[in-house]
Write a structure and sequence with these properties.
mainly beta; Jelly Rolls; about 10% helix
Length: about 150
């Protein structure tokens, strides 16, 4: 059976997880690119944090700023604008946030694929109008090598 997918991927495609104020939409899941690559879209409201400081043991990330400005922290702080690419190799500490009063949209390429599943797994530990389940969050982080 041929499972090849062709054509554009619009805003209605993919699984969207809400992790506190952060959205994470999986545009290209593991199975479509046979585990080589996955793509996650993050949309950040003005002056919104993205993720706490973390690093990956299992994959490299490449972030492309599509609109707005995103700030990423590795050894240094980088502010990237539309069309710019920020490399985040595995084992490199990093975070990201939106420092300005405009919306920011980022595409995160994850190589090899698999890390995108973290967002679906951790989303339920951020219930609406309630405290996050930190034990559940830490368990998901351990499973994904974060």
């Amino acid at each position: 059976m041929d499972t090849t997918v062709y054509g554009p991927v619009g805003p209605e495609v993919g699984h969207t997880a809400l992790i506190g104020p952060l959205t994470a939409r999986t545009m290209l899941p593991t199975e479509v690119a046979e585990g080589r690559l996955s793509i996650v879209e993050h949309c950040l409201d003005p002056e919104e944090p993205g993720a706490p400081l973390h690093r990956h043991a299992q994959e490299d990330e490449y972030t492309v700023v599509v609109e707005g400005r995103g700030v990423l922290l590795g050894e240094d702080v980088y502010e990237a604008g539309p069309g710019e690419l920020v490399l985040k190799p595995r084992h490199q500490w990093h975070t990201f946030w939106n420092p300005v009063e405009d919306r920011c949209r980022l595409l995160k390429l994850i190589c090899p694929a698999g890390g995108e599943q973290f967002f679906q797994d951790v989303g339920p530990f951020f219930p609406h109008n309630a405290e996050p389940d930190f034990a559940g969050i830490l368990g998901a982080c351990e499973r994904f090598g974060l």
